[in-house]
Design goal:
This is STAS/SEC14 domain-containing protein. The chain is α/β, with parallel strands linked by helices and 119 residues long. Helix content is 43%, strand content 28%. It has a single domain (2-118), classed as 2-Layer Sandwich (Transcription Regulator spoIIAA), CATH 3.30.750. The chain contains 4 helices and 5 strands, in the order ββαβαβαβα. Strands 1-2-3-4-5 form a 5-stranded mixed beta sheet, sandwiched between helices. The protein starts with a strand and ends with a helix.
Length: 119
Amino acid sequence: MLELTLDPVAKILKLETTGYLTVEDVRRYRYELLHMASQARERFGRVRMYVDSTDGRVQPANVIAEFADLPSIIQGPDDRMAVAVGSALSLLQVKRSVKSDQERAFLTPEEALDWLNNE
């Protein structure tokens, strides 16, 4: 399952994933993710995205490929994306799909949010 929220107080776009995802799940949220990222950029002048996958699972290769195929929401010099995962294996999986220095993966939500808010 995927759930997207925009926190106007923290100025963070949050994507929470749980369980196993399908390619259809990723495609279904594609438009909403890009739209909310655009809203965040307009409202806050940047995108700070926090992905909470701590309750997620190691995803099938085709699901990871679908995520990697999404247009990057990290476009501006002040944009950042932090991903928190629940296992060392998930951390390796996410790190392989990281596209830039503005995207990082962590083992805890605290580390992810600290990096996101202090950069």
